[in-house]
Every structure is written in structure tokens, then in C-alpha cells.
Write a structure and sequence with these properties.
transcription regulation; Rna Polymerase Sigma Factor, Chain: A; RNA_pol_sigma70_r4_t2; RNA_pol_sigma-70-like; RNA polymerase sigma-70 factor (ECF subfamily); Arc Repressor Mutant, subunit A
């Protein structure tokens, strides 16, 4: 059966990429327990809907889309300020010399609207190609390129003068 084969491939992909899936969820919610909950819910959704997966080449973008959407749904439901968890505080508390620059970048990235933040996270932190980012976010490639360009300009402006404005 083709669907059993795709389900097995999906389970293998999840197993092999669990840290990437967790990191993607965490990049949205900034909380270890919430990220784990999102990963669990996303995996449940993916396995339940495995029959809708048409080809093995689409597993990565299909699953990442589920994680992104589950993360955004969670944030919409929570509507709360995300607190930094203890592990992150410890990481920065024992940081190297460049920790302040990293914190500035992280803060600037968090201040981006989600449509820009998603593009940056998927492209640079998850190392997806532009075409894969477009597929994950259900957008066309030119929209993703424009958003990525605008997001990078907003980050550059934010890091240089401290303000975050959408660049037209």
C-alpha cells in the first residue's frame, strides 16, 4: 500500500528530524514546554492526515507547514507575552563575549511581524530553500523573496538605530 509506505516515511522523517521540528516550534513560542506540546500536536495531526500526503518529496514542507500553523494557532489562542525559559536564561547567563549582539538580533527578530519572522526562521535557521519556504507558508516564490528582503532590511534598520518599521 502506498499510504502505508508514506506513513512509514513520515514517521522516519519525524524521528530523524525531531530536533529541527522542535527548534521550529520553539522559534515561535520561545518556551520549552509549549514547543514540546506543539511538536506533539503537530505529529499527531501529521500522522492522522498521512493519507492526504501524496508524495514522499513533500514530507518536509508538508510537516513544517503543520508545525508553523500549529504554532501560529497556539500564539493566537494564548495572546500573551512569551517569557524566556530557564534553559535560555542559563544559556545567555554563561554566554560568550558576543551574547549581547545575539540578544539584540533575537529581540529584533521577535519584534518582526509573524509573516516576516516565519520567512527568516525557515530560510536561515531551518536552512530551507526559497521554494521550500514558499511551499511551507503556502505563498508564491516572489512573495517569499519580497518578504525576506523586507525582513532583512527591517532587521538591519532595527539593529543599527533601534527602531523597527516596515520598509516599503
Amino acid at each position: 500500500m502506498a499510504s502505508d509506505h508514506l506513513e512509514n516515511l513520515l514517521i522516519r522523517f519525524i524521528t530523524d528530524n525531531q530536533s529541527h521540528i522542535y527548534r521550529l516550534a520553539y522559534s515561535y513560542v520561545k518556551n520549552q514546554q509549549d514547543a514540546l506540546d506543539i511538536v506533539q500536536e503537530s505529529i499527531h495531526k501529521a500522522i492522522s492526515a498521512a493519507a492526504t500526503l501524496r508524495e514522499s518529496r513533500a514530507i518536509k514542507s508538508w510537516l513544517y507547514r503543520i508545525v508553523v500553523n500549529t504554532s501560529l494557532d497556539f500564539l493566537r489562542k494564548q495572546k500573551r507575552v512569551q517569557l524566556v525559559d530557564e534553559a535560555t536564561l542559563e544559556l545567555y547567563g554563561t554566554g560568550m563575549e558576543d551574547v549581547y549582539q545575539d540578544l539584540d538580533l533575537e529581540k529584533a527578530l521577535e519584534e518582526l511581524p509573524h509573516k516576516y519572522q516565519s520567512v527568516v526562521v525557515l530560510r536561515y535557521f531551518e536552512d530551507l530553500k526559497i521554494e521550500e519556504v514558499a511551499e511551507v507558508l503556502s505563498e508564491n516564490v516572489s512573495t517569499i523573496k519580497t518578504r525576506l528582503y523586507q525582513a532583512l532590511r527591517m532587521l538591519r534598520v532595527k539593529l543599527s538605530d533601534g527602531s523597527l518599521e516596515e520598509v516599503k
